C-alpha cells in the first residue's frame, strides 16, 4: 500500500468521523459524499497497484522460464 493510498483512506475515515459528529444534515451528507469519493480513489489506486504487481510478477516469471509474458486477460 502506497503513501497516497494511506492518505486517501485517512481522508475517508476523517470525513466519516466528521459526518458522525455533525448534527446538520447537509454537512453530514457532504462529508459522507466526500468519504465515498476518497474511498473510491483509494480503491482505484489499490486495484491499479495490484494489477501492476501481477504484471510485474508475470514478466519476472517469463524471464526466469525464458518465455514471453502473456498479456493480461
Instruction: Give the N-to-C terminal Cα separation.
Output: 24 Å
Low-confidence stretches: none
The tally of domains stands at 1
Strand content: under 5%
Name the overall outline: rod-shaped
Number of helices: 2
- Mean pLDDT over the residues: 92
Number of strands: 0
Strand-and-helix sequence, N→C? Answer: HH
Give the helix/strand class. Answer: mainly alpha
Helix share, percent: over 70%
Describe the main β-sheet briefly: none
Q: For the CA atoms, what is the radius of gyration?
A: 19 Å
Structural account:
The protein is mainly α. It has one domain. It contains two helices and no strands. It has helices spanning 3-21, 25-65. Helix 1 runs antiparallel to helix 2. The longest helix has 41 residues, at 25-65. The chain starts with a helix and ends in an 8-residue tail after the last helix.
Which tags fit this structure?
mainly alpha, 73 residues, 82% helix, single chain
Concise overview:
The protein is an all-alpha fold and 73 residues long. 82% of the residues lie in helices and 0% in strands.
Topology diagram in text:
Elements: H1 3-21, H2 25-65
